[in-house]
Amino acid sequence: MTEREKMAAGKLYDPFSEGLTERRTLAHRLCLQYNQTTEEDEALRKEILDQLLPHRAPDVYLQGPVYFDYGEYITMGKGSYANFHFTVLDAAPVTIGANVFIGPNVSLYTPVHPLCWQDRNPFLNPKTGVVTDLETARPITIEDNCWLAGNVTVCGGVTIGAGSVIGAGSVVTRDIPPNSLAVGNPCRVVRSITDADRAANHPEWY
Fold it and tell me: For this structure, is 113 an active site residue?
């Protein structure tokens, strides 16, 4: 099993082998280039994203700045939007559905380091001659029509169900069912979102 295959399978892997370092370096450079553009640089932004985020729908919009580890392991669906300072450490697949609203300073973290320092600290890999460490990665899925408010953190292994809203500042450490309003650290479901929440039922909002 290659290191990339171990990474995809959620096993301990060496993140400094088999071209992983080179891809991260490229992704970080592309992020820097994107972050130096403005909304008026549509053609240049598209050119950069074609390399950085190849698995995205054509109408995905990233306000920027963005910070991705690989980019190629992120999928974003039609009509999804991310506000300022969107950070994704995508060692495992990150799947973002259609029409997902992502507020400022949202972070999605798939890597997981060992709990014991003896397993976590850097060491010299005798096979490659490179100082490295070991980590695992767990996928993140955000289903269609979700809204993640500002400063939300989503940890690896989490699925957020379709239509859910995650309150500002929440840290999501476990799955959230569809159509849920969830808040807090750790994030917990407050209640279900129902038709009673439709704007048409709240004339005071108009």
Answer: yes
Q: What are phi and psi of 135, to 5 degrees?
A: -150, 170
CA distances from 175 to 73, 140, 150 (A): 20, 10, 19
Reply yes or no on whether the pLDDT at 127 is more than 90: no
Q: What is the pTM of this model?
A: 0.95
- Tell me the CATH number at 9: 2.160.10.10
In a domain, 206, yes or no: no
Quote the CA–CA distance of 189 and 175 in Å, as a whole number: 10
Could you tell me the CA-to-CA distances from 157 to 81, 82, 137, 204 in Å, in that order?
22, 21, 8, 39
Residues 6 or more apart from 98 whose CB is under 8 A from it?
A: 57, 77, 78, 79, 80, 144, 145
The string of DSSP letters for 63-103 reads: -S-EEES-STTEEE-TT-EE-SSEEEE-SS-EEE-TT-EE-
Residues near 38 by beta carbon (within 8 Å), at least 6 away in sequence: none
pLDDT band at 32 (very low <50, low <70, confident <90, very high): very high
In a domain? residue 201: no
Active-site pick, 28, 55, 85, 113: 113
205 falls within a domain: no
For the segment 159-187, what is each residue's pLDDT rounded down to a tens digit?
999 999 999 999 999 999 999 999 999 99
Q: Chain-centre distance of CA 180, in angstroms?
A: 20
